[in-house]
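I'd like us to work through together how a protein chain folds, taking it slowly. We need material for that, and I hope you will provide a protein of your own picking. Go ahead whenever you are ready, and we will take it from there:
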Amino acid sequence: MFLAQISDTHFRSQHEKLYGFIDVNAGNADVVCQLNALRERPDAVVISGDIVNCGQPEEYRVARQVLGSLDYPLFVIPGNHDDKAHFLEYMHPLCPQLGSDPHNMRYAIDEFPTRLLFIDSSLAGESKGWLTPETLNWLEAQLTQSRDRPTALFMHHPPLPLGNAQMDRIACENGHLLLNLIERFPSLTRIFCGHNHSLTMTQYRQATIATIPATVHQVPYCHEDTRPYYDMSPPACLMHRQIGEQWVSYLHSLSHYPGPWLYNPQISCPVDER
C-alpha cells in the first residue's frame, strides 16, 4: 500500500485569489501535475478536508476540474471551510464512497493490508470540529468488526490539542470521545488530519496522531502567540507506505528545487592530486 495525502487545498472561484494575492488554484494545479509525474506511483491520493475556501459552488467547480485530472483513485473528506451539500454534489463523482447523505459522510476502504476509515469532523458554521453520535457509533462498529486488523483513520480536525495556540481553539471539541476509542481498540494505530496547515505529530497510547501541511499556504506553529498567522513556507504532502507489517510515513516536498542527483563517492570527498 502506498498513499499520498494532501490537505487544505482551499480552492477559490475562477480568477479569484486567496486573501487577494495567493493563487491557490494555480498552486493546486501544480500539485496535481507533480503527483501525476511521480516515478513511484501511489495507489490512491487522500485529501483531508478544506477542499475549497468559502464553500461556494463556483469554487467546487474549479476544484472538481483540477482534482479530476489526478491519475489516481481519490479519497476525500470535508473540512470546516467546506459546505457539506455542495461538497458532496461536486466531490461524489470523484469519490463515490462518500455516499448520498451530506450529513453522514463516512466510509471504509478494505482493499489494503491496513484498513482505512474516513470520517467527517466538520460542524456546519463553525471552525472547530465535532464528532456526531452517529459518526462515533459507526466508528465503534467498524473497529469492533475488524478488531484484530490494523486501522488508520483520516479526519480533518485533530482530536486533541497539540500545543498550537492559534489552532488548538478550533480542534475537535469532543475529540476525547475518539481518544476513548483508541484506548479500547489497540488496532487503531494512526490518525491523520489536516486543518493545522503544518506537520505536527504526537502519540496517544498506541496511536500516532498527525496533522499535515497544506498544498499552498501554511500556518506557523506558535505555542504562546494566538494571533492568526499564515505564511508561504514550502508546501508538502505526506506519503504513507506499508512495507510488510510496518507503516512508514514521510514528508514529500511540493516545492520546486534542483535534483535529485545520483551519489558519486569520487566527488564526495575529493583528494587533491599532488
Summary: Residues 2-268 form a domain with the Transcription Regulator spoIIAA fold (CATH 3.30.750.180). The mean pLDDT is 96.
